[in-house]
Design goal:
It contains 13 helices and 13 strands. By secondary structure, the protein is α+β, with helices and mostly antiparallel strands. The chain has an eight-stranded mixed sheet, with helices on both faces. Strands 8-9-10 form a three-stranded antiparallel sheet, with no helix packed on it. It has a two-stranded antiparallel ribbon with strand order 1-2. The longest helix has 30 residues.
Amino acid sequence: MITITQKQDCCGCNACVQICPKQCITMQEDEEGFLYPHIDRNTCVDCHLCEKTCPVLNQGKEREPLKVFAAINKDEKVRMQSSSGGIFTALAEYVIKQGGVVFGARFDEQWQVKHDYTETMEGLATFRGSKYVQSQIGNTFQETEQFLKAGRKVLFSGTPCQIAGLLSFLRKEYDNLLTVDFICHGVPSPMVWRRYLKEEVARQCEKNSVLNYPISEKDVRVEDISFRNKRLGWKKYSFALTLSTTNGSGKKIQFCSYAPITKNEYLRGFLSNVFLRPSCYSCPVKSLKSGSDITLADFWGIQSDSKFADDKGTSALIVNTALGKYIIHGLNIDVYETSIESVASNNRCYFKSTHKPDNRVKFMQALQKKTVVSSIIEYGKPSLKETIRFLLIQLAILLRIVTILKRICRRKNE
C-alpha cells in the first residue's frame, strides 16, 4: 500500500485513489492545504495497484523533443484571452471538432480550481488561462478511460505530474488520447489561495471607489479572476479581480482591480516559492519524463526581431511524440521552428526543480497567526544566503559568456 513518510514523495495526482479497486484510499488536506492519500487499512487487500500507479515511485525516462516551435494562435481574440500564445485552445478546438472531449482545469463556484471536461467549443473558455493553484483531479482519470474505451478522442491537459499519473493509471496506450502538459514552476497551496482571495475581496470592498458607501463581503460577488491579464502586456502581466455588487436601486455594478506582477502579493509569493507543494522542490517529471505528447510554455526571451515579439504572448510548442507532430499540422496557428535550448534558457523549470526557499517553514508558521498578505511581505523575499547564491550564479553565467566571446574573437583573428 501507499505509505507517505516524506511529503515530498507525493505529488497529489490522485492516481492511487482512482485505481484502488476497494475504494479504500481518500485524499485529505494537511495543515498546508495540500491533499495526501490516507488508506483504510481494514479494507485494503494489498493488491499494490496504488504503488504500481504512483508516478513518483514509477518515474519515466528523460526524453528529447522531436520538434520545438515558437507559436501563436491566428485568432487574436483567443490569443489575448490566453496566458501566452493561445496554443492550448487551438489543440482543444481541433479535438472538439472531431467529436472529442477536452479535460482541463477550471474555477468552481467557490473559485477553487478543479479538473473537469467539456464537449463544446463554448466550454473551452473556462479552461483558458493559467491558474496558479493545485487543481483537484477528482475522478477525471476514470472519466478519461471511459471516453477512450467508448472510442472518443480525448485531450487531457494538466501539470506534468498529473499527466504522468494519468498515463500510469491507464496502464495501456490509446491512439485516441492526446496529452498536453506545460513547463511547470510548481503548484501553490489551495488553502493559501482560499485565504488570499478572501483577504483580497475584503480589501477591495474596503477601498472601493465605485459607490459612495461601504461594501461588505456579503454584498459582493466574484465575477472573474485572471492570474495573467494582458492589460499591461504579456511580459508585465497582472492579477485581475472582477467583482460585482448592487447599488441602492438594485442595479448591478461591476468593478475590477488590476495589480501587475511586481505589485500583487500572491504572484510575488508564487514566484518566491514559499507556498508550493513539497514535491515541487524535487519534481519527478522534469525533462519531459511525464510522457506527454505536447508540452507548452511561455516563450520568454523570444527574439526581439521576431514577428511574434509583439508583447501579446508567444508560446513554446514542444512536440514530444509522433501523434503530437501529426496533430499540429491541422491547427489554426503560426509557427517557426527553433531549439529546445532557446526555450530552456529562459525556462529553467524545464529541466530543474524549483528551489526551496529558506523562508518556507517560517512562512507556513506565520500563517497560523498572520494574514497571507503580511506573511508574503515578510517571508516572500529571498534570504541573504539565497541572494548571495543568486548573484554568484549570475556572475558564473556572465563569466561563461565572456569566455565564449573571447574564443569567438580568437577564432576570427586566426
